[in-house]
Amino acid sequence: MKTRRRPYTEQRPQDLGGGVWSVPVPIPGNPLGYTLVYAVESPQGPVLVDAGWNHPDAWDALSGGLAALGLDVSAVHGVVVTHFHPDHAGLAGQVREASGGWIAMHEDDAALVRLMTEYAAGEHDTFQADMLRRAGADAVETRQVMGGRPPTPALPDRELRDGDLVDLPGRRLRAVHTPGHTPGHICLHLEDADRLFTGDHVLPDITPHIGIYPYDRDDVDPLSDFLASLDRVGDLGPLDALPAHEWIFPDVAARASQIRHHHEEKLERLRALLAQRPQPLTIWEVAAMMTWNRPWDDLAPVLRGMAAGEAAAHLRTLEARGRIRRLPGVDPVRFQAIDS
């Protein structure tokens, strides 16, 4: 079954067959519009894949959408979260309160949620300002980009590892660790139905945000992790994909290959851009010169901050491949191409 992306106002809960349902849950003020929350049937009550943004309108949509499908949020057996972002994990705590069910996520994202729980708001502001300065943002840009963080998701009751089966009686729902978008992102393979819940890892039209935070870290390489995760999903074959945004689509392997090609082309363009410049560039300068879905000056400040994170991830992959280098002992950090 394939559905095209429509505005949230045109979305409806759907019975997808085989004991699987989808409920569109709005993301207030976000151009993505909505998260597709899935419910999978079990004798002990449905298990949700993601839960949606923590907002009263989102809660009404989730609980009302389940009711329209003949399901009761109070009967939910558990919520398995594909990753910790607020449009996926935000309502998990409220579902747990209403049902007594469990929350599960990958152990790497669970560790981040614990860290966020312990992190004071003032520390977050200091961290963000220093990160932007080291990336090359000036004082005005730093003030524009900085903003509050969303509420911390609920801590999970259960932590998953790659290959674990989710507690879904009568079905086989296996966690597939697909880091990149977050360190603990998972897809969920419904093995008895040849379906893959892809979260944000593989989407039918857009590509997920892959960024580094802080921007100048050199001990991680999330884009390389993401590309390897695409290959891993591709190895599962032409499964039907049930993503968290946009629409359901067939052949996740083919789409994973397209996304990999997109990033490889982007890496080559970025390396060429640095090679054309006589002086090393900061992360912020690189981000301002890259191609986005609109001109840099037209991007909202928060989107410029995300673009810088994505630029940093691509720079880090080129650095790891030996195509560019960062200048040692320079603040803000700067990168230059290596002659090939």
TrEMBL record:
InterPro entries: Metallo-B-lactamas (IPR001279), RibonucZ/Hydroxyglut_hydro (IPR036866), Sec-metab_biosynth-thioest (IPR050662), WH-like_DNA-bd_sf (IPR036388). SUPFAM superfamilies: Metallo-hydrolase/oxidoreductase. CDD domains: TTHA1429-like_MBL-fold. Transmembrane segments: none annotated. Pfam families: Lactamase_B (PF00753). Residues 34-245 form the Metallo-beta-lactamase domain. This is MBL fold metallo-hydrolase. It comes from Nonomuraea insulae.
